[in-house]
Amino acid sequence: MPTALILGAASDMAVAIAEKFASEGYSIQLAARNSARLLPLQSDLAIKYNSRVSLHEFNATAFDTHRSFFDSLYPKPDVTICVFGYLGDNEKALADWLQASIIINTNYTGAVSILNIIAEFYAAEKKGVIAGISSVAGERGRQSNFLYGSAKAGYTAYLSGLRNYLFHKGVHVVSVLPGFVYTKMTEDIRLPPILTAKPSEVADTVYDAVVKKKNVVYVKWFWRYIMLFIKCIPEFLFKKLKL
Amino acid sequence: MKKRIANWGNFPKMDSEVKSFSYDEQLGELVRGTDHFIPRGNGRCYGDASLADKTISTLQYNRILSFDTVNGVFECQSGLTLDKILEVIVPKGWFLPVTPGTKFITAGGAVGSDVHGKNHHVDGSFSNHIIEMEVMLADGSVLTCSPSEYVDLFEATCGGMGLTGMITRIKFNLKKIETSYIKQKQLKARNLEELIQFFEEYKEYTYSMAWIDCLTKGEEFGRGILIIGEHAKLKELSDKQRKDPLVYAGKPKITFPFNLPSWILNTLTVKIFNFLYYGKNFKKEIANVVAYEPFFYPLDAILHWNRGYGKKGFVQYQFVLPLASKQGLIDILKRISDEGLGSFLAVLKVFGHQESLISFPEEGYTLALDFPVRKGLFTFLDELDEIVLQYGGRLYMSKDARMKPGVLVKGYPNLEKFRSIVKKYNPAGKLSSMQSDRLLLTGKT
Question: Is A37 on the interface with B (CB under 8 A)?
Fold first, then answer.
C-alpha cells in the first residue's frame, strides 16, 4: 500500500485530497497544527476505506522542526502533497510586518523549507512524487492580494525549478493552480459558479496529475486561458485596473 | 454573504447567512459568536423548520467516529447523511434501525425530527435506537445525553427541531441483515376499508406502508396498494442476487432538470397518475425480492423531484390520528376528494405505540399528502387541522410550513414541558427558526 503525506491536512481542500487518496488505496499521513482535531477524519478514512491513517504534528512556519518532523515519519511517503497556505488580509499585512511575514512564511518559506528536505530524500531514493498546491494569484500581482500572490509566485517558480532539478533524478513534481474553490475561506465571497471548483474536484485533479505525472494543472480548464489572457495585458494598462 | 435557501418543499424561501464548520472549535466559535441561528443539515425537512436568517450548516461536519461491526454500533458526526452511512454499513451486514423515505437526510436531522419509517409499529422511531449523543448548547458548552443521562435534554432534543442545541455526535444501534434485499409483497385494496383491514392482517411484517388514491369516490373510495416487506434471508435470494448478497445499491441516475410549470399538476393529471399507478399492478397480490433501494427510497432515484411541483413549491401535510379515530381519516379523505385537491404522493401507515416528549409518532393512522402551493390552499389546510384536532390527532413539524400555534398546543400534550426544557438549555432563544418563531416556541413571543 503506497503512502501519501498531506502537509497542512486540516483545510477543506486537504481533507478532500486525503479522502481521494485513501479511496484509491493509499495509506495517509495527515500533518497539521493541532493534529488532534483530525482524529474524526482519521477514524472516518480508516473505516470507509480500510486505510491506514496516522496523525502528525506539523507547523509550516516552525522551520527548525521540519527536519525532525520528516525524520519521524515511518514509512516515508511515496507521494507528498503540500497543501498549506494562508490568504491573510492584504491591507493589514501592508501595515503590519508580522501579518506580512506570516503570509510569506506560510506560502513560500515554509513550503521551501519542508520540500527541500523531502526533495533531498526523494533524490537520493531516485523516486517519489511531490505535488504543490500553489495559486493562480501567483501568476500576476494584483492590488487586492499581492502579498499572498507574490509568495505564491515564488512558490510556483520554486516548484517549476524543483521539477526541472528532480526530473533528472527520477522524481516528479506537480504544480497545482486551483483557481476559485468553495471552502470555508471563501464562504463569505460571492464566487462565479462556473469558475469555482469543489474541493473534491481539486482532489480528483491532484490525484490524476500525480498518477499521470502531469506538470502544471488547473482544476477548471479555462483558468489556464484566463490567466494567459491576464498575463498578456500590457503593464501600462494592467496597473490602472482594479483587480 | 446571504444565500437564498429553502427546504424540500421549496416553500417558504428565505435569505440566510450560512456558516459551515469541520472542527469542534470552529463550531464553538460560531455558536458563541452569533446572537441567533438554527442548525441546518441537508434541508430535507419540508417547511421552515431549518430556516432562519442565520444558519449553521453541519454538512461539512460529517465524519464517522466508530463502527463496531461485531455488535452493530455506529457513531458519527451530525452532518453525515444516511446514504453515506448505508454505503459503509450495508456491505458489512448492517442496516439503519429506522429510515425515512429518503436517505438524503443527515444523522442530526434524523434526531431533530425523530424520523420514523415503514417499521414504526415494530421498531419505533429513530430516537429509540440512540445510545447517546452530544449536544452543544447555546453558550458553547457541550453535554453528553442519553436515555439515562441529562434525560430532559435527550428527550427534548429527539424531535425537538434543533431548539435545544446543536447535535454534534450521535451513537446508535444498527440492525443486523443477512442480505441487502427485501422480500416484499404488494396488495391491492379496493377501498379504504380493505386497506385498513390489510394493515391489521399484515401487522406482523416489519415494514409496511400504503399508497392511497385520494381522488376516488363511492365504492372505490380510498383504494390503494399496501406494500409490506422483510429483510430477505440468504436462501430467499435468486442465484444472481446471491453472488453479492450485501450489495450497496449505489447512486441515483436521473435528475429532475428544472421546475415544472405549476399548472401541470391538476386534478386530471393526478387522476391519470393514480389510475396508472393503481392499474400497473395487474394482480391482486405481487410478491418478489427487490433491492432495498427501490423499496425504501423510490423517490431518491430522481434527484430534485420536488421541482415537479413548480417554483412556488409545495407543502406536505402529515398528520396522525389515534386508532379509534378511523372516521377522522375518512372525513379528511372525503374533504380532499370533494375539494378536488389530489396528491401524487399520498402515503398511509399505521404507527405503533410510542412514549415521547415531542416526537410526532403516536399509535394510530398517519397520512402524508403533498399539495402544491396555490391560492386558497392554506385556508383549506386550516379546515383539515380542525378535523385532525377534533379526532385527537396532530401534525408533523418536519413537514409543516403553515400551522397555527394553537394547533401545535392542542396536538402535543407535553408541549409546555418541552418549552420549559428548551428554555432551560436555550434561555435566550439563541437557537430559533422561522418555524419556532411562528409556533411561538422561541423568541419573539
Answer: yes
